[in-house]
Amino acid sequence: MLHQQNLTVNAAGHLALAGVDVLDLAREYGTPLYVLDEDMVRERMELYVAAAREHLPAGSRPYYASKALCCKALCRMAGEEGMGLDVVSSGELYTALAAGADPADICFHGNAKTEADLRYAITERVGLIAADGEEELLRIVRLAGELGARARVLLRVTPGIDPHTFAAVNTGVVDVKFGVPIPGGQALAVTERALGLENVDLAGFHCHIGSQIFDAGPFLLETDVMTAFLAQVRERTGYTASVLDLGGGFAVAYEETDAAPDCAGMIRAIGQRLLERCREYDYPAPAVLLEPGRGIVAAAGVTLYTVQNVKRVPGGACYAALDGGMGDNPRYALYGARHSAVVADRAGEAPDCSVTLAGRCCESGDLIGENVAIQTPRTGDTVAVLTTGAYNYSMASNYNRVPRPPIAALRGGKARLIVRRETVEDVAAYDL
Length: 432
Ligand SMILES: *Cc1c(COP(=O)(O)O)cnc(C)c1O
Description:
single chain, about 425 residues, alpha/beta, Lyase, Ornithine Decarboxylase, Chain A, domain 1, TIM Barrel, nine-stranded mixed β-sheet, eight-stranded parallel β-barrel, 12 helices, binds pyridoxal-5'-phosphate
């Protein structure tokens, strides 16, 4: 049940995260409350940075996909631990810069950047802009010209790989809103076009094949397709890429039954395959960028809720209604994502109940999970939903005008707020 390695049961029988009794945190900061094990976040960052340094060509580096959990404190941690930052909007870019990030360490992504986004990114001289296609490249050329700047760009391409069947496929997986497909030749044609453009320097290529990848297999296939593409581009145009961005998607164990993925092992395998292919094609090894998001923060986080009431529907489920829900964790409502949970007050007891954890919003689909194995919940209990560090706070909303919870970070056994709790006044602050 406690598959997160930073969770234990203390002498009082309470759940502890990184050694800190979560009931104390709930009392101090109130619920709902996001709690983040900052020591683990930093360890994960170090692990990716070290693996990139050890197993990938010179200049290789992981960029934290800030969409997983974006706030100033996280951007600062990424900088301190030597990671670059991926951003996808002016809001994420502003947060990174406000946290003191070096623009040179930032890569701006997105399939629908606005003119304002691009102007902001170019003006701030971000290190890389990942252009989603030809039209956007031309827009960058125009804006860079207007702003008297040059933009260093990656072209986002779609290699045509299904990460969950480990197969290279030409249809379906390239028919997506992101990037330009390699199969069929469009990526090559856009590259030829890009090389003749003013005001932009093509640094290389970007791709991202999906999320929750547990095994090196899909990344190796991606490396094969991308290196073959690099060789083809060089043959046609004479251009040699200096950067190959392979995206993110390193898996996280969300439930006890999930295997613990070996990220460093996957990165080692990617590095070996890349060097083999580069030797085969006699191609100078490009710097490899990786973009882990959930792999950095998911397992470092838990969310604490207070049970407001418990009811059993005759012939139906047992419902524990929580003081949060889809407003702070939309993952189950959005894509059926499963999280484990624990009654923090009796964490030492075996789970003896299968419950539906219900949120507080006026939506039958507002659930945190169904058939969740947990200790029999009672009104007033603190329920911890596990592995919520990624895509919870960053996807939170004010539906039903519920203020978003704060984030408390734990470092060296001490808690501090890195995001304060919203108030009802905050929620109404933009109303005119
Ligand atoms: C979402 C995304 C990531 C991060 O994905 P994780 O599964 O959180 O690692 C990285 N790069 C791009 C381009 C993405 O869209």
